User: Which sequence fits this backbone?
């Protein structure tokens, strides 16, 4: 009841400032930057260098980088970019529909702040783990929803979240200090907004597999 009241108060106070279809604009921006990098590399890389999140740029007064880094595309591959942007958009829309635009805006904003802090500490950060954290959020809310991986393979979101977790672990082990700090801050963002949902999902899955194991054990007798 208290959480619902807090959520209602946030919605009422911040609704006028929240951006509807936030993920749509982020995906469009990333698509435009990617298209320039691919079609007009000279202009594309000039733009890329101006929108990335670097401490040096911020110290020079280029404060637009605090926002524009979210438009850096996630890949240089024309094929992969289509799948990545499709998933970002689908997940963003799903979360906004479930949470409302205020909470989704706040979730993304807190993730952006984590990346910004990482950049100020280490000199550089990007939006990779901020966007990957959306998968954790979506999987916590819709663990059994099936999506088509690469538009072909049906797979449940909870399994994609496990792949996501493996990527986080891999990059934490082999990544730079900036990568590790960004990962930690993005995971704090996930814990802040989704700690209860993730714990409930883990408990539900644990009960499911325990029941399944006991059933199979009983059938063998």
Assistant:
């Amino acid at each position: 009841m208290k959480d619902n009241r807090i959520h209602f108060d946030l919605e009422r106070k911040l609704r006028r400032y929240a951006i509807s279809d936030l993920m749509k604009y982020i995906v469009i921006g990333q698509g435009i930057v990617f298209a320039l990098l691919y079609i007009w590399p000279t202009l594309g890389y000039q733009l890329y260098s101006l929108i990335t999140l670097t401490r040096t740029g911020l110290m020079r007064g280029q404060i637009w980088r605090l926002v524009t880094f979210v438009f850096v595309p996630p890949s240089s591959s024309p094929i992969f970019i289509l799948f990545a942007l499709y998933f970002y958009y689908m997940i963003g829309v799903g979360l906004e529909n479930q949470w409302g635009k205020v909470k989704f805006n706040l979730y993304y904003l807190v993730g952006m702040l984590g990346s910004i802090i990482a950049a100020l500490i280490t000199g550089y950060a990007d939006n990779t783990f901020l966007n990957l954290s959306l998968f954790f959020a979506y999987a916590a809310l819709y663990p059994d929803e099936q999506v088509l991986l690469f538009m072909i393979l049906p797979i449940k979101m909870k399994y994609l979240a496990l792949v996501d977790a493996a990527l986080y672990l891999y990059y934490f082990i082999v990544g730079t200090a900036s990568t590790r700090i960004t990962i930690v801050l993005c995971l704090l963002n996930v814990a802040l907004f989704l700690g209860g949902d993730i714990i409930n999902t883990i408990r539900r899955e644990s009960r499911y597999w325990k029941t399944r194991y006991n059933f199979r054990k009983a059938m063998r007798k």
Observations:
- The chain has a mean pLDDT of 82.
